[in-house]
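Quick one: sequence plus zinc ion SMILES, need structure tokens.
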Amino acid sequence: MKAKDSKFGKLNYCQVCNSKKLQKIIKMGSTGLCDSLLTKKQLKKEKSYPLNLVRCTNCQLIQLDYTVNNKEVFHLKYPYKSGITKPLTNLLHSTSKYLRDNFEFSKNPLAIDIGSNDGTLLRGFKKQKFEVLGVEPTNIAKLANKNGIKTLQSFFDIQSAKKISEKFQKAEVITGTNIFAHINKLNSFMEGVKLLLDKKKGLFVTESHYAVNIIEQLQYDSIYHEHLRFYLLKPLDVLMRMYGFKIIDAIKIPNYGGSIRVIASLNQEIKPSNNVKKILNYERSKGFYTSKKYTKFSNDIKKNKKKLSDLLLNIKEKNKRIVGIGCPGRCITLLAYCNINNRILDYIAEQSTSLKLNLYTPNTHIQVLDEKYFFKKQPDYALILSWHYGKNVMKNLRDKGFKGKFILPLPIPKIIN
Ligand SMILES: [Zn+2]
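Reply:
Sure thing.
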């Protein structure tokens, strides 16, 4: 059996195993795309798409039941740059270091990064003496090339893989970090990786936001259209086996509020590390393969929405001003689902270098402004939208002179003086 290359629109089967046994977890309404902020003109004709989370009771994959055309999601002007913050750059470079420290490679091995963005991850591989090639569909590819990271501007599928195989040696590493949940043509993607990877030494490395973290820490704001799948290790194991890969290592990493790095090989003789078994046992023993777990998750999300809305409305009744801090993709879900609109937040403050400045959030129509304005105006409250980096963000705001109070929206809404 193979996975399907999903069509766009409503899906009534599991994206990995094709089963139709899907448990509904939560309906989050209809929302706009997280990385398509709107210009003033676009506010009048904005598009939205259903956002529902379901779970396959056969292979345990948690997933959306609707696929938006990836050319709309990863449009050419997609605003995300992975090298934008120092801590994130360090985290991305940890991938190449981990592989160098734990596995053996030939001289001048090739590393291919799929969804390579501005080439930050590959710069790490270059440092570790790899030849590198990026594959990236958006215009950020041009920036990567300009900065000396060879990058093919294209979506990755079996066709682009064939083109690469004509020009390059077999890859000893293929990475898909934070994009492996985004791919709608899963079959074509897996066949492409298989074609390019060295059969003996090659490692296929994925890093994905880990479903255990999402559920245990109530990170429901990471549910958005770009993320078609939310991986536990179990469904990844099912998927890898379907294509002849064997998972040989898995570790939890801190990226994006808790991710899992999974290393797979086509070489069946490699013995898997103990981590693989340990993580699978944890998932099973904590009930992640039971429907009950997801009924509770759904109830917890609804409770959070009520608490957060009450807290913010309470502040607004006292005529205080609240400003959102940071505009990560994931905040779009939180704002839309909790009805936090431009009557509640005056605006959202972003760093001066942000590509989102002066645009508006989908659905809730809050304008994004330069943080200089925020420091000058000193509003009463700052709602921390990158709450998963909350401590750092709050310290940074205080250091730069913010005198008001903080609000953390998740996992339990609270005010910090
Ligand atoms: Zn399934």
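The pocket of zinc ion is lined by residues 14, 16-17, 19, 56, 58-59, 61 (CB under 6 Å). The first helix runs from residue 70 to 73.
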